[in-house]
Each structure stands twice: as structure tokens, then as C-alpha cells.
Amino acid sequence: MTSKLLCAAFILAALTLSITFSLQPDQQKVLLVSFDGFRWDYLYRVPTPHFHYVMKYGVHVKQVTNIFITKTYPNHYTLVTGLFAENHGIVANDMFDPILNKSFSLDTMNIYDSEFWEEATPIWITNQKAGHTSGAAMWPGTDVKIHESFPTHYMLYNESVSFEERVAKIIEWFTSKEPINLGLLYWEDPDDMGHHLGPDSPLMGPVISDIDNKLGYLIQMLKKANLWNTLNLIITSDHGMTQCSEERVIELDQYLDKEHYLLIDQSPVAAILPKEGKFDEVYEALAHAHPNMTVYKKEEIPERWHYKYNTRVQPIIAVADEGWYILQNKSEGLMLGNHGYDNALAEMHPIFLAHGPAFRKNFTKAAMNATDLYPLLCHLLGIPALPHNGSLSSVQDLLRPTAPRTVTHTQSPPPHHGSGKPGEHEQESNAYFIGVSLDTYCPVKYQQVFT
Ligand SMILES: [Zn+2]
CA nearest 399: which of 351, 423, 433, 369? Predict the structure, then answer.
């Protein structure tokens, strides 16, 4: 190995070390915010100055691949566990577990049975086991007892509690005598209005503007509490939304005798439990019933969905094409917007933005997986990550490199690298930092090493 190569290897190792070292204590605060159903391109539908403010002084990921099925509870549990649905066990908003012989239903808010949640351990529990405290304002699952624990502070779910009240609780917990290091904040829109109006409706413009104003309010309150520059704010969502229509409805009653099966979950992924001895009959009747519906026996579910290896996935699933709706019959009515479809579809993808001392500034990344958020959160909080399906190295480029603690620099780094509290108008100078590190370890210039 030439001296140049040896030198490059040493530099890369040193840079890796510098990134994987834990952050300064005042950098270890995280507020994770979810605006339910905020599709990735809503950012550009109408002016969203507050979202763009976060993008300018923070990071933005353009394409986030969430998990199948692209529903609310499965994806919110992925964000806090890093697991696919088949691994965390929240496989749908409406489920039946044949071993527990119990049902889980978002429609009836019958979601408080701990056993449904305990195939995984969410980050607030791991955070608290590491000696920290967490606070949750309505994030799905945070008012459920999981592995005998709740978040240190939490609010019982009540959709009539205003955004401002939820923000006030979060600020109170971050600024109390024993401050939390992890906050989770959830808001129901633009999902609710997206279902009601359909995402193509021009009336969605004011809905998106309202969310932007809510983000502006959150930023204002964080600044007032002196948290804006010390807290890592991550803004994301669970899924997008696509336009549906009364002309694109698949009625199961047209093909199946409803006495032969139970419909556990409906559109766009119908979860079908045939009654005893009726599997073949149900499958054959459904398999080629409609050109816009693909029917899978459980074992045939595509591997890329990471969806088949869980007892709560029913023996047959029928998946609608984008924009199509599966109903038992039309008397049930449909929503003009829906989600839950294939997670490869762009319209199912959410947003991802972040701002804070750990993040780079004015940095755009092309793509990430929703499962990568969990190891990133664990890294930011300085806590051990449990086994997960994500990758910290895939998202590490979102982070500012931190100064190695065990190395004496032969020249001083730029002042803001040591402070941990970047000012609002500082420019990202990652290239300069690499240059400093190279100068520290090796006499060659980085242009020579990496060309
Ligand atoms: Zn949702």
C-alpha cells in the first residue's frame, strides 16, 4: 500500500470516528414532529415559507420511502422502532391476531391492548432505560402501556386538543427542572382534510398553508424558549395521499359470498380471512376478479414489502392499484383521498426535514428510508439502538461532522465547530473541515486523495 493510500485510509477512519462519537450533551435534544399525511410535494403546492426556512437552515430529504402498508399506525411505529411492519407487529390500522384471538381497530380506537405493541420496543422506552426522560403529545401509541411503560410525560389521545396546547406541553417538558431530551409531537392534518377533499382539490391549498402556519408557530415558540438553536427538530410524516373517485371502486360483494370470509381491513389493502374450509373458494373467486386489484396468498406477498412474516397478516390480501378503492359494497361510502398503497409509489411518500446543532445547513439529500430515522434518533440521543431494519450510515451525511475529541489539532478548527451552537446565518463548511482534518493527519491535500 502506498503512503498516499495509507494516509487516505487513516483519514477516512478518523472522519468516521469523528462522526460516530457521541454529540455534546447540549446537542442531544430531539423533537420529532409528524404532520399526518403530509405528502412530499405539498411543500411546493402553495408557498410554505416556514418549511422552506427549515430547509434553508437545515436539511431536506426529497424522497422518503416509507413502509408497506402506507397507513398511519404501521408507519408511525416504524418511525420510532426502525422496523418493517412484519417485525414490529402493527401491520395495519385494523388487525386481527389469531393467536391472541383479539382485534385492533383504529375505527373504534380499540388500540390500547398492550400485546399488539409488544413485538417491538419504541424509542421512548429505550431512552428512559438509558436514564433520560421523554415527552409525547399525542404521537400514536404513546398513551399505550408498552412493556409496562409509558413515556415519562404524555397526553391521552384527544383530537380536540389544539396544536397550540400540544406545543405548550412540549415546551414545558423541554424547559422543566428535569428536562426531557426526547419530545414527540403529532398533528392529524393534512391527513383528515386530504381524505375528505382528495389531494387534487384546490381546497387543499389553504389546508397546507395552515400546516405551514402551525410550523411557524412551533418555530416561534421554540425560539421564545431558547430551544431553537440547541434542539434537533425533525419534521416528518407517515405517508402521502392519492386521489380516489367513485368511478374507481371495486366491490367485493360482486365476486364473493360474504358468508365465506371476514374482512379484517379494507382499502386499499383488503385483509381477508376465509372461514374454515373456504380458502380455495375465496381465493379462486377473487384472484382474477378485477384488473385493478392484485390478490396474493400470504406466502406470495412480494418480499420487497417486508410484510408476510407476521401472524397478523391474513391468509389473503387484495391490493388495489393507486387511486382505486376496495369496498364490501358501495353502500359503505368512500373517501376522496386515500393512502395505504404500494410504498414504491411517489404519492405515498412523506416529507423529511430537520434543523438543529447536529444537522448540516442548506443541505438536500436525494433519498432515505423511513426505517433509517430510528438509528439516527438513537445516535442523536446517545442511546443504544435495538435491532432494526434501518441504516445510520445511509443518513449520516445529514449530520455535521463533529470534532474528534481525542485528537489534538495542529490548527484550530473554525469557531463554530467547537461551539455546538451554530448561528442562524453561518454557512456549512464541511469541505473546509475535511481540509482541516487532512492537514492534521497528513501532508497531502484532499483533492489529491479523493481524485
Ligand atoms: Zn396517517
Answer: 433
Q: How far is the CA of 202 from the centre of ligand 1 (A)?
A: 21
For the chain, the first-to-last Cα distance in angstroms comes to 17
Taking a 5 Å cut-off on Cβ, the residues next to ion ligand 1 are: 36-37, 72, 191, 238
Banded model confidence at residue 150, pLDDT cuts 50, 70, 90: very high
406 — pLDDT class (breaks 50, 70, 90): very low
For the residues 33-42, what does the mean pLDDT come to? 98
Measured CA to CA, the distance from residue 294 to residue 342 in angstroms comes to 11
Q: How far is the CA of 16 from the centre of ligand 1 (A)?
A: 36
What value does the mean pLDDT take over residues 368-377? 98
Question: Across residues 406-417, what is the average pLDDT?
Answer: 31
Lowest mean pLDDT among 120-134, 182-196, 283-297, 435-449: 435-449
What's the sign of the alpha-carbon dihedral 59, 371, 118, 311? Answer: positive
Q: Domains, the chain, ranges and CATH? A: 2-17+417-450 (no CATH), 29-83+120-243+344-382 (3.40.720.10), 249-337 (3.30.1360.180)
What is the sign of the dihedral through the CA atoms of 432, 435, 437 and 439? negative
Centre of ligand 1 from the C-alpha of residue 211, in Å: 15
Task: From 436, 449, 447, select the one nearest 410 (Cα to Cα).
Answer: 436
**Strand ranges (E), 298-395:** 316-320, 325-327, 337-338, 352-355, 363-369
- Residue-wise pLDDT tens digits, 197-228: 999 999 999 999 999 999 999 999 999 999 99
Specify the pLDDT at position 441.
Answer: 28
Any idea which residues carry the catalytic annotation? 72
The winner for highest mean pLDDT among 4-8, 11-15, 93-97 is: 93-97
Dig out the grid coordinates for 41 from the structure: 410535494
Ligand 1 mean position, distance from CA 269 (Å): 15
Q: Which amino acid is at 449?
A: V
Is 403 a residue whose pLDDT tops 70?
A: no
CA of residue 69 to ligand 1 center, whole Å: 11
